[in-house]
Design a protein that fits this description.
Shape: flat
Structural class: mainly alpha
Number of helices: 19
Order of helices and strands: HHHHHHHHHHHHHHHHHHH
Number of strands: 0
Radius of gyration: 29 Å
Strand content: under 5%
Largest sheet: none
Distance between the termini: 59 Å
Amino acid sequence: MHIIRYLATKIEKWDFLLTIGEKIAGKNSEELTDYLKKRFNISFAALLSTAFILSLLFGLISFLLLVRIGAYLAAVFSFFVIYVVFFSIKNSVTSIYTNEKIVHASLAPLVFYELSLSLEATDSVFEAIKSIAQSNYPIVSQKFRDILRKTSFGHSPEKLLFDYALTQPSNDFKTAVLAILSVGKQNTSNIEEYFREMENEYEKMTREIEMRILLIVTVSTFLPFLLTMTYTLWGYSWLIPTIPLVQIFLQKFPSKKILLPLSRDMKIEARTMINELEECAEFLETYSKFLELNYSPEKAIAETIKTVSKSVSRKMTLMVKDLFFNLTPLKVAWAKFIANFKHPYVIISLKTAAQIIEKDSKRSGEKISGISTKLREIVTLTRKRETLVATQRLKARIITIALTALLGFISAIIPVIAYSTMFIFNKSYSPIFNNLIMVMSLLATSVITAYANCKATMDPRMKSQILLTILIFLLTYNVTSLFQQLTY
């Protein structure tokens, strides 16, 4: 990585070398160039020029080493080396940009939900930044902690947050931060439209990743078939064990995750998450109504437990007991109540509600009512996301099963093709050895594809899907082989 950046900075000074990268990059790379300039002090064109030159160098070396074996094989392998080296160098840098963009797009609704609620509760940009810094958002929390450290040297938190926004790869993330800074504490409710925009952008990016994975899986479907047929027809059956290695190489390029979880430590079922959102929204909505009637915070809790559903009242039981029997302070009892929930939106909402509760119960009730309304909207968005994830997993499963059945069929008919073509090339064929290699290699290819697809879609049924893949492959292979024996 450091060597690539060093070479790219040197190429920046050579206009004729930089022109190569500009031609490859085209006109749609301004956003990526701005990011690389601010982050690594190199342009996208310089990165592409570096990748192109190094890939040509490695390709030439590969050709010279293999040309004695065969010019055709050397040319094909050298082109493959050029392709691999070029995209490996390019992706070593651009993957950072892509990863940060995906992280910001996936976490933006949650981050800015907390940011806007903190602004509404504390009327302080510094406290809002501190709230995000104390959370556990990948990449984002660390950046906000860096902003907090800089404020200790007298820098303005608003200015630091503004500078941070300008360097972000996600346009919606950037726009939302600037919007928060512009509306500030006077009109934080307007940020809701940015939540919707970011959610739409997140769903759009999710679909793009889905298409990329479908493309990779489609290639993985036909590439093993193409390689197997090529090796068999040309008498290079000893190369069949390389097919799983090629499959492993291909599976490294699709996005590692379609949907980043809201927290790396959060592993709860989607249905439980939605239930928690609905329970919290019900609690805050009911609690806010009693506060608006000028009930005290403690009295409002006593009335709320009588009105809410059984699932919510069970979680409130300990808080009521602490308040009225153990005489525990409201903040302490409220903190214990928060421990009943795991969903980050719920935790953020309840923590913010605890900050909002004041002596003026009616004013507090109005603010908490606004939080419950936002939670209801999040429930709707979460259900849409759940449907999207389920659709992606179903598509991945269907394609994996289709690939497995195809490879099982191919592994059974390849010996027939090999016998019919071995006289053309006048090469010997060892059916026991070659068949064993072929079947095990294509079975390994199917398992690798199933594992990669389950990992990409975060499928909780990975073990059962891999087992199903093995069974379908063996079943297809045995049925095809049996049918061949019956026809002869």
